[in-house]
Design a protein that fits this description.
single chain; 721 residues; alpha/beta; D-amino Acid Aminotransferase, Chain A, domain 1; Dna Ligase, domain 1; Rossmann fold; 4 domains; 7-stranded mixed beta sheet; 6-stranded antiparallel beta sheet; 23 helices; flat
Amino acid sequence: MSVELRKKLTKTLTENEAKQLLQEFGVPVVPERVAATPDEAARYAAEMGFPVVLKAIGASLLHKTERGLVHLNLVDDQAIRAAADTIAARAGAELEGFLVQPQISGRREFVAGLFRDPQFGPVVMFGLGGVLTEALADICFRLAPLNEEDAAQMLEEIHARTLLAEFRGEAAVDREVLVQTLMGLSRLAEKHPEIAEVDINPLLVTPNGRVQAVDALVVVRSEPEKKDLPPPIAPDAIGSLFYPKSLAIIGASAKIGKWGHSLMVNTISGGFEGEIFPVNPKGGIIAGRKVYRSVAEIPADVDLAIVTIPAAATVALIPQFQKKGIQNVLLITSGFGETGKEGKRLERELVKTARRAGILVLGPNTMGICNPHIQMYCTGSPVMPQPGSTAMVAQSGNMGIQLLAFAEQQGIGIRAFCGSGNEAMMTIEDYLDGFEVDSLTRTVILYVESVKNGRRFFESARRVGKKKPIVLLKGGQSLAGKRAAESHTGAMTSDNRIFNAVCRQAGIIKVERPMDLLDLAAAFSSLPLPAGNRVAIMTLGGGWGVVTADLCAEFGLDVPDLTASLIARLDRLLPSYWSRSNPIDLVGERDLSLPLTVLDELMKWDGCDAVINLGILGRRIMVKRFSESVLKADPDYSAEFIGRLNRQYLDFEDTYIKHIVSLMDHYQKPIFGVSMLPDEKNQTLYRVADSPFKGVFYSTPERAVQAYAKMVEYKHFLNRA
């Protein structure tokens, strides 16, 4: 940028200055001349060739079209001078000159821009431009810096992407120029942190596909506000929190329903093998254990202090913990930042005191933590999922506990869980860094309402996502939800469109419903990643196959035609009236070997990347109900015979699950199941000894299809990374 231009970086550049700056970064701008007088404007127009556009120039002249400061299709000197007189009268003292441009025609208008999000920093924007920008809001975002893959994806993300191709006799848009425009904005954001906003609208496309910036705005900010961000916590420090050998429960209680009682009995009943020391000034015995009047009385080392006493008394505990050598604190207590100004002050005081003492605090306002691998279930509710590879953090403790309960019910193994509470010291970004280095974590699931450090969250998630999938549910997306999240966590939430863009760019698998978190956890932790989006569907009944095929189309999955050779092989297995198409309908056949052999053929087929099977598992429930009807109605059948029939289907389901797992081991393709009917024995996951894979069966086709589609989405991210 020239020295003269730098001197003018006050608040808003003139349109011409903005375009000069953008041109330096590869943005194609319309040729133009700056005129000081109407006569000079007329001379430049004649040199340029009519028709032309005449605009007012002035750093304070925004929304020029609305103010009548832009005149189009001027065809001679007289029209130029008349337009200049009108502009001068309307702009008054704000007028600094006139801008003369050739009249550029084009029916397609886009918008590109740059701004600085308070959470995530510089953001590049692209979308449908002109007068439709605000009305349709067909725009997308990426955090800067971009790579060319990011920029190319932005072009495909808008709804109006068909306008980029040949359109009503006009040539396709020069995509390379658009990509380089977005890349130029990204470089501009890095080189000039003083620039707060860039708006290029319209980015006009001529009939021959040429792209030019016709108008541009550049806003320069004053000194940026510096946020007081919490310092990172070392990943190994986070890990130590989840592996205590001894616990002290501060505020232990003998009264059922009190936090100090619930945490203690749940930890004991969960089988925690370390020492548990109740602490209460009254002393006595609780749950058969001696109660200590203070932490100083405890006759052994304490790895983790669990605090349930009122908020006002918590800061005074820190010196006691320091003297005892306690370095980790789980602060269950509420009444801090989530309650308002005084609570925020108390939270800041607590954090400051803890940092000085070298003590790490998880919380406050949390439902607790668990690590099934050491049988530590230190939570307010008695939920005890089995050990597994899915790590879970929830900014709503109640939400997290409900998800844990479902995981326990459905057989989904958990690596570790915590309700992160207000995140006064340990933030979602810290947990991500911890999961990155944890060898037992294969999948990360997050319930997030806000982030403390948006840029760090993005960078950590993108780094972790290249090693293990992150599945995320965002709370506070509606206006009502956002208000609830702010009152719940005491934190601000960023614009949801920006957050969604962050997820796409970082490879985060974002879901919309709580149960989707565990559906995806089951899939990612139990199935091989698919190589692509082609699916073979096998169903016991035709209707389910039709519905599933429709769902696959909705989620961007391909249901390919069967090859002639595959049809010939299946002809030898299935009745003559089978569909001979994908989905493959087993037409209700009762031969229990048939699903096994058809599944073999589908997994061998190189035309599919995954198989969805519907209605095979769960037939035992129908058989059981039918058997009960037979016993009531037909005396010719004995209870012994009916019992053998039921056992046959039970044995088949066990065999079928083992067969599925062996096929996934051999072919490295995922198999998604949908149960015919659920009962108390049904689970999402079915384990098979000595295999990294598991049988996965959902209760509905849409859950299976969505799980597959999200795995494909993650695979695409890995291929780009």
